[in-house]
User: Fold this.
Amino acid sequence: MLWFPHAKINLGLAVLNKRKDGFHSIESLLHPIKLFDILEIIENQNSDNLEDELFLSGLSLDISTEENLVWKALQLLRKRFDFPSVKIHLHKQIPSGSGLGGGSSDAAHTLFAINQLFNLQISKNRLAELASEIGSDCPFFNENKSQYVKGRGELLESFELNQKPLKLFLVIPDFSVSTQMVYSKIKPKPNQKPPIEILKQPIKNWKTDLKNDFEEVVFKDFPLLSELKEELYRRAALYVSMSGSGSGIYALFSDEIKIQLPENYTSYWMNFPY
Assistant:
Protein backbone atom coordinates (compact mmCIF):
# COMPACT_ATOMS: atom_id res chain seq x y z
CA MET A 1 0.00 0.00 0.00
CA LEU A 2 1.47 3.34 -1.12
CA TRP A 3 0.69 6.72 0.44
CA PHE A 4 1.97 10.17 -0.48
CA PRO A 5 2.24 12.36 2.66
CA HIS A 6 2.07 15.98 1.49
CA ALA A 7 3.82 19.06 2.82
CA LYS A 8 2.20 22.30 4.01
CA ILE A 9 2.94 25.99 4.24
CA ASN A 10 1.79 28.48 6.87
CA LEU A 11 0.00 31.62 5.75
CA GLY A 12 0.47 33.82 8.76
CA LEU A 13 1.62 32.45 12.10
CA ALA A 14 0.73 34.30 15.28
CA VAL A 15 2.27 33.17 18.58
CA LEU A 16 -0.13 34.51 21.20
CA ASN A 17 1.03 33.21 24.58
CA LYS A 18 2.75 30.40 26.43
CA ARG A 19 0.34 27.96 28.03
CA LYS A 20 0.51 26.29 31.45
CA ASP A 21 1.20 22.94 29.74
CA GLY A 22 4.40 24.36 28.22
CA PHE A 23 3.01 24.68 24.69
CA HIS A 24 2.32 27.96 22.92
CA SER A 25 -1.08 29.13 21.69
CA ILE A 26 -0.89 29.92 18.00
CA GLU A 27 -3.12 30.84 15.08
CA SER A 28 -2.22 30.07 11.48
CA LEU A 29 -3.63 28.93 8.17
CA LEU A 30 -2.11 25.63 7.07
CA HIS A 31 -2.29 25.05 3.34
CA PRO A 32 -1.32 21.79 1.56
CA ILE A 33 1.23 21.93 -1.26
CA LYS A 34 2.30 19.47 -3.94
CA LEU A 35 5.50 18.24 -2.37
CA PHE A 36 5.32 14.66 -1.13
CA ASP A 37 7.14 11.93 0.71
CA ILE A 38 6.41 8.33 -0.34
CA LEU A 39 5.25 5.86 2.31
CA GLU A 40 4.81 2.13 1.72
CA ILE A 41 3.38 -0.11 4.44
CA ILE A 42 2.83 -3.85 3.98
CA GLU A 43 2.30 -6.78 6.28
CA ASN A 44 5.55 -8.45 7.29
CA GLN A 45 5.26 -12.03 6.05
CA ASN A 46 8.88 -13.00 6.75
CA SER A 47 8.50 -16.07 8.99
CA ASP A 48 12.08 -15.66 10.21
CA ASN A 49 11.48 -12.14 11.51
CA LEU A 50 8.03 -10.98 12.48
CA GLU A 51 9.12 -7.75 14.13
CA ASP A 52 8.16 -4.36 12.72
CA GLU A 53 10.74 -2.91 10.33
CA LEU A 54 11.35 0.63 9.07
CA PHE A 55 13.49 1.33 5.99
CA LEU A 56 14.50 4.84 4.92
CA SER A 57 15.64 6.26 1.59
CA GLY A 58 15.85 9.63 -0.09
CA LEU A 59 16.87 12.64 1.99
CA SER A 60 18.81 11.68 5.08
CA LEU A 61 17.39 12.06 8.59
CA ASP A 62 19.84 12.58 11.42
CA ILE A 63 17.67 10.80 13.99
CA SER A 64 17.31 7.30 15.41
CA THR A 65 14.47 4.95 14.44
CA GLU A 66 12.87 5.54 17.84
CA GLU A 67 12.79 9.31 17.19
CA ASN A 68 11.21 8.96 13.75
CA LEU A 69 7.57 10.09 13.85
CA VAL A 70 6.53 7.20 11.59
CA TRP A 71 7.87 4.78 14.18
CA LYS A 72 6.19 6.73 16.99
CA ALA A 73 2.86 6.53 15.15
CA LEU A 74 3.29 2.78 14.69
CA GLN A 75 4.10 2.24 18.37
CA LEU A 76 1.14 4.40 19.41
CA LEU A 77 -1.19 2.06 17.50
CA ARG A 78 0.59 -1.01 18.89
CA LYS A 79 -0.35 0.07 22.44
CA ARG A 80 -4.05 0.25 21.58
CA PHE A 81 -4.77 -2.22 18.78
CA ASP A 82 -3.83 -5.73 17.76
CA PHE A 83 -2.54 -6.14 14.19
CA PRO A 84 0.23 -8.08 12.39
CA SER A 85 3.81 -6.85 12.15
CA VAL A 86 4.60 -4.52 9.26
CA LYS A 87 7.37 -3.45 6.94
CA ILE A 88 7.51 0.29 6.35
CA HIS A 89 9.54 2.04 3.66
CA LEU A 90 9.70 5.83 3.90
CA HIS A 91 11.23 7.70 0.98
CA LYS A 92 11.94 11.27 2.11
CA GLN A 93 11.51 14.13 -0.36
CA ILE A 94 10.35 16.82 2.11
CA PRO A 95 13.44 18.13 3.92
CA SER A 96 13.35 18.02 7.70
CA GLY A 97 13.74 21.30 9.56
CA SER A 98 12.18 23.23 6.67
CA GLY A 99 8.88 24.22 8.31
CA LEU A 100 6.92 22.13 5.81
CA GLY A 101 5.53 19.50 8.21
CA GLY A 102 6.99 16.44 6.49
CA GLY A 103 7.51 14.39 9.63
CA SER A 104 4.03 15.17 10.94
CA SER A 105 2.48 14.27 7.60
CA ASP A 106 4.40 10.97 7.54
CA ALA A 107 3.13 10.13 11.03
CA ALA A 108 -0.49 11.00 10.25
CA HIS A 109 -0.43 8.95 7.06
CA THR A 110 1.07 6.00 8.95
CA LEU A 111 -2.01 6.03 11.16
CA PHE A 112 -4.33 6.15 8.11
CA ALA A 113 -2.46 3.42 6.29
CA ILE A 114 -2.39 0.89 9.12
CA ASN A 115 -6.03 1.59 9.93
CA GLN A 116 -6.96 0.84 6.32
CA LEU A 117 -4.54 -2.04 5.77
CA PHE A 118 -5.83 -4.02 8.74
CA ASN A 119 -9.41 -2.68 8.86
CA LEU A 120 -9.02 -1.45 12.44
CA GLN A 121 -12.15 0.69 12.02
CA ILE A 122 -10.69 3.71 13.79
CA SER A 123 -12.96 6.70 13.21
CA LYS A 124 -11.72 9.89 11.58
CA ASN A 125 -12.10 11.82 14.84
CA ARG A 126 -10.21 9.17 16.78
CA LEU A 127 -7.41 9.23 14.20
CA ALA A 128 -7.14 12.98 14.72
CA GLU A 129 -6.94 12.48 18.49
CA LEU A 130 -4.18 9.90 18.06
CA ALA A 131 -2.34 12.17 15.64
CA SER A 132 -2.38 15.03 18.17
CA GLU A 133 -0.53 12.78 20.64
CA ILE A 134 2.39 12.64 18.20
CA GLY A 135 2.60 16.30 17.20
CA SER A 136 0.52 19.46 17.38
CA ASP A 137 0.20 19.84 13.60
CA CYS A 138 -0.38 16.15 12.84
CA PRO A 139 -4.23 16.38 12.87
CA PHE A 140 -4.07 18.88 9.98
CA PHE A 141 -2.92 16.10 7.67
CA ASN A 142 -6.19 14.22 8.20
CA GLU A 143 -7.52 16.10 5.19
CA ASN A 144 -5.87 17.52 2.09
CA LYS A 145 -7.31 21.04 2.34
CA SER A 146 -6.68 24.45 3.90
CA GLN A 147 -7.47 24.65 7.60
CA TYR A 148 -7.18 27.41 10.16
CA VAL A 149 -5.52 26.17 13.35
CA LYS A 150 -5.73 27.42 16.92
CA GLY A 151 -4.63 26.24 20.36
CA ARG A 152 -1.30 24.48 20.12
CA GLY A 153 -2.23 23.59 16.53
CA GLU A 154 -4.74 20.81 17.21
CA LEU A 155 -7.94 22.89 16.92
CA LEU A 156 -8.97 23.02 13.26
CA GLU A 157 -11.61 24.78 11.22
CA SER A 158 -12.10 24.75 7.45
CA PHE A 159 -11.07 27.90 5.64
CA GLU A 160 -11.31 28.40 1.89
CA LEU A 161 -8.98 30.95 0.37
CA ASN A 162 -10.85 33.41 -1.81
CA GLN A 163 -7.86 33.93 -4.02
CA LYS A 164 -7.35 33.98 -7.78
CA PRO A 165 -4.92 31.35 -9.15
CA LEU A 166 -1.29 32.26 -8.58
CA LYS A 167 2.11 30.60 -8.80
CA LEU A 168 3.89 29.53 -5.64
CA PHE A 169 7.69 29.51 -5.63
CA LEU A 170 9.13 27.40 -2.80
CA VAL A 171 12.78 27.71 -1.81
CA ILE A 172 14.49 25.28 0.56
CA PRO A 173 18.04 26.18 1.64
CA ASP A 174 20.64 23.53 2.44
CA PHE A 175 20.28 24.04 6.20
CA SER A 176 17.53 23.27 8.69
CA VAL A 177 16.10 25.19 11.63
CA SER A 178 15.29 23.63 14.99
CA THR A 179 11.65 24.19 15.93
CA GLN A 180 12.53 23.64 19.59
CA MET A 181 15.19 26.37 19.42
CA VAL A 182 12.80 28.83 17.79
CA TYR A 183 10.07 28.27 20.38
CA SER A 184 12.61 28.74 23.17
CA LYS A 185 13.44 32.23 21.86
CA ILE A 186 10.03 33.46 20.69
CA LYS A 187 8.33 36.33 22.53
CA PRO A 188 4.54 35.90 22.27
CA LYS A 189 2.37 38.81 21.11
CA PRO A 190 -1.05 38.32 22.72
CA ASN A 191 -2.89 41.33 21.30
CA GLN A 192 -2.09 41.08 17.61
CA LYS A 193 -4.62 40.94 14.79
CA PRO A 194 -5.58 37.30 14.04
CA PRO A 195 -4.25 36.02 10.69
CA ILE A 196 -7.76 34.89 9.70
CA GLU A 197 -8.89 38.52 9.48
CA ILE A 198 -5.96 39.46 7.25
CA LEU A 199 -6.41 36.43 4.99
CA LYS A 200 -9.87 37.69 4.09
CA GLN A 201 -8.35 40.90 2.75
CA PRO A 202 -6.86 41.39 -0.76
CA ILE A 203 -3.39 39.91 -1.18
CA LYS A 204 -1.93 43.42 -1.62
CA ASN A 205 -2.47 43.86 2.15
CA TRP A 206 -0.67 40.66 3.11
CA LYS A 207 2.85 42.06 2.65
CA THR A 208 2.43 44.56 5.46
CA ASP A 209 -0.12 42.79 7.67
CA LEU A 210 0.26 39.00 7.40
CA LYS A 211 3.20 38.02 9.63
CA ASN A 212 5.00 34.86 10.65
CA ASP A 213 6.14 35.67 14.19
CA PHE A 214 8.97 33.16 13.96
CA GLU A 215 10.74 35.22 11.31
CA GLU A 216 11.84 37.72 13.94
CA VAL A 217 13.80 34.98 15.73
CA VAL A 218 15.01 32.94 12.76
CA PHE A 219 16.19 35.86 10.61
CA LYS A 220 18.55 36.98 13.40
CA ASP A 221 20.30 33.61 13.38
CA PHE A 222 19.96 33.02 9.62
CA PRO A 223 20.22 36.42 7.87
CA LEU A 224 20.42 34.66 4.49
CA LEU A 225 16.70 33.93 4.83
CA SER A 226 15.91 37.59 5.36
CA GLU A 227 18.00 38.47 2.31
CA LEU A 228 16.19 35.83 0.26
CA LYS A 229 12.82 37.26 1.27
CA GLU A 230 13.90 40.76 0.24
CA GLU A 231 15.24 39.48 -3.09
CA LEU A 232 11.96 37.73 -3.91
CA TYR A 233 10.07 40.94 -3.24
CA ARG A 234 12.49 42.73 -5.57
CA ARG A 235 11.52 40.18 -8.20
CA ALA A 236 7.88 41.37 -7.96
CA ALA A 237 6.53 38.71 -5.60
CA LEU A 238 3.07 39.55 -4.26
CA TYR A 239 3.74 37.94 -0.89
CA VAL A 240 6.76 36.24 0.68
CA SER A 241 6.95 34.36 3.97
CA MET A 242 8.84 31.74 5.87
CA SER A 243 6.82 28.57 6.46
CA GLY A 244 6.42 27.47 10.06
CA SER A 245 9.69 27.77 11.96
CA GLY A 246 11.72 27.64 8.72
CA SER A 247 13.97 27.20 6.89
CA GLY A 248 11.63 27.01 3.85
CA ILE A 249 10.62 30.30 2.21
CA TYR A 250 7.77 30.66 -0.28
CA ALA A 251 6.67 33.48 -2.57
CA LEU A 252 3.46 34.08 -4.48
CA PHE A 253 3.74 35.43 -8.03
CA SER A 254 1.26 36.24 -10.77
CA ASP A 255 3.30 34.12 -13.22
CA GLU A 256 6.40 31.94 -13.23
CA ILE A 257 9.64 33.80 -13.77
CA LYS A 258 13.26 32.72 -14.00
CA ILE A 259 14.99 33.06 -10.63
CA GLN A 260 18.65 32.26 -10.10
CA LEU A 261 19.47 30.76 -6.71
CA PRO A 262 22.63 29.41 -5.09
CA GLU A 263 23.41 25.86 -6.25
CA ASN A 264 22.80 24.42 -2.78
CA TYR A 265 19.20 25.71 -2.66
CA THR A 266 16.29 23.60 -3.90
CA SER A 267 13.29 25.28 -5.50
CA TYR A 268 9.88 24.31 -6.86
CA TRP A 269 7.14 26.05 -8.80
CA MET A 270 3.56 24.94 -8.14
CA ASN A 271 -0.01 26.18 -8.42
CA PHE A 272 -1.63 28.18 -5.62
CA PRO A 273 -4.16 27.66 -4.13
CA TYR A 274 -3.90 23.88 -4.26
Remarks:
- The mean pLDDT is 95.
- The helical segments are 69-80, 102-117, 124-134, 179-185, 195-199, 206-209, 214-221, 223-234.
